[in-house]
Amino acid sequence: MTGNDKEEISTLKSNLFKEFEMKDLGKLKYFLGIEVLRSQQGIFICQKKYTLDFLAETCMIDCKPAGTPMIPNQKLYMEDEADLADKGQYQRMVGKLIYLCS
């Protein structure tokens, strides 16, 4: 909860504690992959930690940026006896990228 009326926030929290089992975790710092930073200029959010964790998980932390991450006009083909990629890992990676970009 946020606001400029500390008394109203305190009353609201008291009422919520009466109705629901919950605890006050203090000022928000990190939630659902989003970092929350406070300064005199205001509140800022970013996903730097989430992005770095994703790059580390995919072993791409040391990769360099590229305008096109593959050879242009590359002919793609499917090898008949190649091992299939891990479907679950692929789905998790795509889900994380979608979350990061939305």
Q: In terms of topology, how is this protein built?
A:
Elements: H1 6-19, E1 30-31, E2 34-39, E3 42-46, H2 48-57, H3 87-101
Structure description:
By secondary structure, the protein is an alpha+beta fold. The chain has a domain at 20-65 and 86-102. It has helices spanning 6-19, 48-57, 87-101; strands at 30-31, 34-39, 42-46. It has a three-stranded antiparallel sheet with strand order 1-2-3, with helices on one face. The longest helix has 15 residues, at 87-101.
Strand residue percentage: 5-15%
How would you describe the shape?
A: elongated
Along the chain, the helix and strand elements come as HEEEHH
> Number of helical segments?
3
What is the oligomeric state here? single chain
Category from helices, strands and their pairing? alpha+beta
For the biggest sheet, the summary is: 3 strands, antiparallel
* Low-pLDDT sequence parts: none
- What is the averaged pLDDT score? 88
What is the number of beta strands? 3
User: In angstroms, what separates the terminal alpha carbons?
Assistant: 23 Å
